[in-house]
Specification:
The chain folds into two domains: 23-146, NAD(P)-binding Rossmann-like Domain (Rossmann fold), CATH 3.40.50; 147-308 and 330-356, Dihydrodipicolinate Reductase, domain 2, CATH 3.30.360. The chain has twelve helices and 15 strands. It has helices spanning 4-7, 32-44, 58-67, 77-81, 101-110, 125-135, 151-162, 179-182, 193-196, 201-217, 310-323, 332-351, and strands at 23-28, 48-55, 73-76, 91-94, 114-117, 141-143, 168-178, 221-229, 242-249, 254-260, 262-273, 276-281, 291-296, 299-303, 355-356.
Length: 361
């Protein structure tokens, strides 16, 4: 094994300029993820700052603004759509339930504001396509796949591209958590198809191994097959308390993925090639110490590296690309491709057969 294979593990290979004006964000949707992950990331950043917070509840918005370091303006959803405070932010971060993304992206695009939209980009391919159309040729749009800016994942992508493990053959990826341990009340949006999309586990968790495999392989999905079941009372409205699915990529690689909202917290990603393998575990949860391993020709090396705040990396990348007027990836068409694939997963589980996936990325 080449000794430089791991020593070249670098941070922020995308960074070209460090002296940039910060991007001012309006945070739309003030759930726990925005309050505890997104806003603190901008407060740590030299590239970003939260200046406006937006909620359906004005009192909640006021409370969040008061608790933040820089946000001075709190507005409601209706006020946002009416164009309030547009001179106080440069970009929006949309973190509402999936089926509510479209309306905020459309308004932001009309105001000429750059968009960082949480994944999955929307609940259906049709609505995701409308997001792409609203932003394309109008404003920058990035889908918030934080794995794309996680240094361990970026290094895995480089190693695969360099042929370090030979030709990729298989990907194994999984993500699971106990949703009801996190949120004791089952009456929440991830278990509501009208808000989440067709299911809970694949839409919320399965998207991680699916999309990260796409990114690491630099390949696209062409077919899926899936199995899913729901037996718990809390999961009666969704088909995927637990799900497994296979993805066939256009380079011939096969991926075996699994996801569950009712299992022990766990995640991993492994790419197996003709000459070796690269793996990350745990892979997908933020603020965990990741183990990065590369095995080639029977020799295994494990890397200890500086852990990063994935949300900080994501926000800083987005701001950097905007301020330097560089191409943003993952863009809206990339996000649309995942929505199409996940809907195919649910269709396959229902039909019990392989489903082809088409559409441009």
């Amino acid at each position: 094994m080449d000794a430089t294979a791991l020593s070249e593990f670098g941070r922020r290979d995308w960074e070209t300029d460090t002296d940039l004006e910060p991007v001012r964000f309006a945070m739309i949707g003030l759930g726990w993820w925005t309050r505890e992950e997104a806003i603190p990331a901008t407060e740590q950043s030299d590239r970003c700052e939260t200046t406006v917070v937006v909620s359906g509840d004005h009192d909640k918005a006021e409370d969040v603004a008061e608790a933040s370091e820089r946000a001075e303006t709190a507005i409601t959803y209706d006020e946002f759509h009416d164009g309030a405070a547009t001179d106080e932010y440069d970009a929006v971060y949309v973190a509402t339930p999936n089926a509510k993304h479209l309306e905020f992206v459309v308004s932001a695009a009309e105001f000429g504001k750059a968009v960082l939209c949480e994944k999955p980009m929307e609940a259906t391919p049709e609505r995701a396509r409308r997001i792409v159309e609203a932003c394309e040729d109008e404003v920058p749009l990035m889908v918030a796949y934080r794995m794309h800016t996680e240094p361990a994942v970026r290094r895995a992508r480089e190693l695969v591209a360099e042929g370090a493990i030979g030709d990729p053959m298989l990907v194994h990826g999984s993500m699971s958590q106990d949703l009801l341990e996190i949120f004791s009340n089952p009456d929440q949006w991830r278990l509501d198809p009208d808000l989440s999309g067709p299911g809970a586990s694949v839409m919320d968790l399965g998207i991680y191994p699916l999309n990260t495999a796409r990114f690491v392989l630099d390949a696209d999905r062409v077919g899926v097959s899936a199995l899913a079941r729901s037996e718990g009372e809390a999961f009666s409205n969704v088909p995927d308390e637990v799900a497994t699915f296979e993805v066939r990529f256009d380079d011939g690689t096969l991926a075996a993925c699994s996801a569950s909202q009712h299992a022990n917290r766990s995640s991993h990603l492994k790419v197996v090639g003709t000459d070796g393998e690269v793996s990350i575990e745990p892979a997908f949860f933020d603020r965990q110490n990741r183990k990065f391993e590369l095995e080639v020709g029977g020799t295994r090396a494990e890397l200890d590296y500086e852990q990063v705040d994935q949300m900080l990396e994501e926000f800083d990348y987005f701001a950097h690309q905007i301020r330097t007027d560089r191409e943003i990836h993952p863009d809206g068409r990339h996000g649309l491709a995942d929505i199409e694939a996940m809907h195919a997963v649910y269709e396959s589980a229902e039909r019990g057969s392989v489903v082809s996936v088409s559409g441009d990325d």
